[in-house]
Design brief:
alpha/beta; single chain; globular; 21% strand; 9 helices; six-stranded mixed beta sheet
Length: 217
């Protein structure tokens, strides 16, 4: 494996309102700042309040620019775009560099999802002319498998999807998960079972990146 040192990187988390993109971005920012990186963030809230699930106007985003030295803006375009559903890919792809790595949850790119996002074909990658590297993973199903023995219901398990994406991004940029674990345990101090479920999923995302040798151009 080749490890490359970067001076700066921009990551954009995007998904449906309620997918926890602000939290994922916040944790990644905190982890990076704690190890000495300078950061600049830009939370991007949905155009509509309580927009229908999977709609183009309900996409929520969080962009963070991290650097080994001073950074002064959240960055223009991102090196990594996390798109948790079809609508997020449709609306946020314009913010990705030509060399960006794009992460998608294939479980949220079903026929109904593509229809809500106004795609005309069943191949959004080809339809949008995306040439960048795409990490297409069944994130929702992997999260369910990861938490199958916790006794959580489907809805509760899927609320942890954002942590899988975060774990994968932490793998890409060699972030220390211990800081993320501490953040989650403090945030969910009154609900330790939720904290531990999220921590389990963040490790699953990190391990997925490791096992598939995921990388950024």
């Amino acid at each position: 494996m080749m490890v490359k040192e970067l001076d700066q990187v921009v990551v954009r988390f995007s998904g449906d309102s309620g997918d926890g993109m602000q939290l994922a971005g916040n944790i990644f920012s905190t982890v990076s700042a704690t190890v000495g990186n300078d950061i600049s963030t830009f939370p991007d809230y949905p155009a509509d309040i309580r927009a229908p699930q999977g709609s183009l106007t309900g996409v929520s985003g969080f962009q963070v620019h991290i650097g080994a030295s001073k950074v002064f803006t959240p960055g223009d375009k991102c090196d990594v775009l996390v798109a948790m559903n079809a609508a997020a890919l449709k609306t946020q792809y314009k913010f990705a560099k030509s060399t960006a790595c794009i992460i998608i949850d294939t479980d949220c790119f079903q026929a109904s999802d593509l229809q809500k996002a106004a795609f005309k074909t069943d191949n959004p990658i080809e339809e949008m002319g995306i040439k960048q590297d795409v990490i297409a993973a069944p994130i929702s199903q992997m999260v369910k498998d990861c938490l199958a023995e916790t006794g959580m219901d489907n809805k509760a398990m899927l609320k942890c999807r954002n942590m899988f994406a975060l774990g994968l991004v932490c793998w890409l940029f060699n972030r220390d998960l211990k800081i993320a674990e501490d953040f989650l345990r403090e945030k969910f101090a009154k609900k330790p079972e939720i904290a531990e479920a999220n921590i389990k999923v963040i490790h699953a995302g990190y391990d997925y990146g490791h096992n598939t040798h995921a990388s950024v151009a």
